[in-house]
Amino acid sequence: MKFGYWLPVFGGWLRNVEDEQMSTDWNYIKRLAVRSEELGYAVSLIAELNLNDIKGVHAPSLDAWSTAAALAAVTHSIELMVAVRPTFHNPALLAKQAANIDHISNGRISLNVVSSWWKDEAEKYGVHFEQHDDRYARTAEWLTILNNIWQQDHYSFHGKYYQVKDNVLQPKPVSQPRPLLYAGGESEAAKELIATTCDGYVMHGDNPETIGKRINDLRERRERKNLPPMKFGVAAYTIIRDSENEVKKELERITNVQAGSAGYNNYQQWLSGTQLEQRVSLEDYSVSNRGLRTGLTGTPAQVQDTIEAFEKVGVDFFLLQCSPQLEEMERFAEHIIQPSLINA
After folding, report:
1. Could you please report the per-residue DSSP string of 187-214?
2. Region 295-308: what's the mean pLDDT?
């Protein structure tokens, strides 16, 4: 089992706590990334939103791609999984940018392909907003171009959304045959596209039984297409304490989101812009990516038991959120990562 984390480019993950002591600046991000390698974390997911989904649209947020390039130069081992939304990026230009960062990092860049759900953000940044299935049709063309440009020169493509004529991209990525591609989604369009074109499936938080069913579904889709096995990751919000009472107290602190708070305003818009298998409660929405549903909260022994349950159903890695991030990641590493490395 590998452990990764979401880079706090929004200044935190809680929609009811204004200041989580996680500065939205380069110095904090750099310090966190460098320390995470020392602690044994294997991957960092760098989310891409031009507006702050967590703290409100007037709060600062960091750009994903320039942040990834900077981190590539100051880290040595961690995989940099950068979110990318096809509606915001020309595929040929993004292929060039990603290949360059792949060279800076010596092959540590990967992409998490995300469907754009936030209509207000698209309009504020002058990007055409498309309905759900149209976004996935665009993404299919986008990925076709990306895959081919990374692996061959003099490539041309003429589709509904994109046209590329005799493209040449040099240097090619260090990663062979290309950087890894991850994606998430629960609609039929999303799962079929991911099973066909990606190397990994990244899921919102949920219990082991539900996650196991999703993994089996994607595995069966891959097998029907005679494609190699995928990697499976799950988002999780983690709280580790010495007693259940301390865990309960922390849960109460982070889940009392009220209507009218900064992060509440786009709650309904997010729900209407996605196609989820299960309805999301306001408590689920208190932290991002349904992380509390994964259940990595409790004493160290309880959390370790939960991790083992996920491992049994086929999960390969977790992408953790916690608050404050650096301090809680230290705690998680002390109780979970480092003992597992010793016992390996």
Report:
1. SHHHHHHHHHH-SEEEE----HHHHHHH
2. 97
